[in-house]
Amino acid sequence: MNGNPQLNRNGELQHLLTLEGLPRANIEHILDTAESFVSIAEREVKKVPLLRGKSIFNLFFENSTRTRTTFEIAAKRLSADVINLNIGASSTSKGETVLDTIDNLSAMLADMFVVRHAQSGAAHMIAAHLNATARPYIHVINAGDGRHAHPTQGLLDLFTIRHYKKEFSQLTVAIVGDVLHSRVARSLIHGLTTLGTPEVRVVGPNTLIPAAAANLGVRVFNDMQEGVRNCDVVVMLRLQNERMRGALLPSAGEFFKHYGLTEEKLALAKSDAIVMHPGPMNRGVEIDSPVADGKHSVILPQVTFGIAVRMAVMGILAGS
Amino acid sequence: MRGTDNLPKAEDLLAALAVQMQGAIAFDARLVGIHSGGAWLAERLSAMLEGDHPFGTMDVSFYRDDYNTVGLKPKVRRTQLPFDVEGARLVLIDDVLYTGRSVRAALNELFDYGRPASVELAVLVDRGGRELPIEPTYCGERVTVADDRNVVLHRAGDGRLSLGLEPAGQP
User: Fold this and answer.
1) Phi, psi of A217 (to 5 degrees)
2) Chain A nearest CA to B19, separation (Å)
3) Which residues of chain A are within 8 Å of residue B73 when distances are taken between CB atoms?
4) CATH number corresponding to B10-167
5) Which of A84, A248, B112, B166 fits a 20 to 30 Å CA distance from A230?
6) Tens digit of pLDDT for each residue in A226-274?
7) Alpha-carbon span A12 to A26, nearest angstrom
């Protein structure tokens, strides 16, 4: 793998693997394009013919009904044909390698793969394989790989922040909770940094903050009150129970007491702060119900914007 | 070269176009301008024409037939139609009519908003070269331009419109 396998020779996006190192111009192109896709959802016919005749394969080696559904809706609103493969239940359990799966599906004339995998770097490997075998016209979107990246979630978070706050140059953003296991947090941090956000904070107990967090250019807070004080944006992360290994936390109740977002803690942020969450939420663990349903919450608009952002990514990739 | 670089003045053509349209378009006609030149014209015509003729704007990028060869352009605008398309009498407005492919894309997009009662077409200049059976209802002027040139509408800071020639790039 040499250079940035996401971009072709003309600097156009060919695969979307990570926001790390993705130039500002590419990120802004995606966000601007998503803007015009938002209005399509408000029409009588919620579809445009852009990807008519293209086949998009959703390859979910790790389960995620919600993310897979949003990609499926995005592809269908672009008039593509969508094929969902629940890989866990098919070929890999029979012993086929990931790249053999990709080659087989490519032989069925796939135009794009949307890949979710528990292993960090899986989408990267697939994209490199397609590039190395002279099939650059097949595009790969990383829909989440291990703890590494979830670029479309990062982009929809950026889109949401831009929608409510207009620009990034004055913002303080706090990302709270299980940062250690969160590819969402990593993607968002890279995106926020590229777009010039002056202060990005990560807030949580040391057991849930990556040791190298400071290398990402963020400020680390162990105290939630200090962490959310005067913030414009508070991003709550899901406490990833299924990823917990060992005794990182005493209990979910203890976590809520210290790091759950309540109205009292939110009152320390700016009065017009927005609250975000990538979903699915654990009410009463990382976020209190009155906050999740309150006037600062933009959690459901995030979901709506997520479709437009994924349409933009697919539209830009398939045209490159 | 089969043409001349002496392009007519855009402001004169706009005035002529308004005269043609006045009284000819339906009393309740709505204007739909195609980005970006057509959108500027729709805004101006909406103010110039007597009666109530609201305008909307449309970016047809998602409906173009050259997406597979040229991809998505860098800046796609929002289509904004502040009226109901269903049953409406519409006048589609573009700056330059050439192959007819933009108009084809615009018609397809319009019908995803509803079924208009009628659609007419008004253009500032018609430079010939049609690749589809599309003709304008109202036209400022027919011009002859070399194949390797694009006719482009510009808008100055004070809102004044002018026509210019540019080398033709990608299709």
Assistant:
1) 85, 25
2) 34
3) none
4) 3.40.50.2020
5) A248
6) 999 999 999 999 987 665 556 667 777 888 999 999 999 999 999 999 9
7) 8
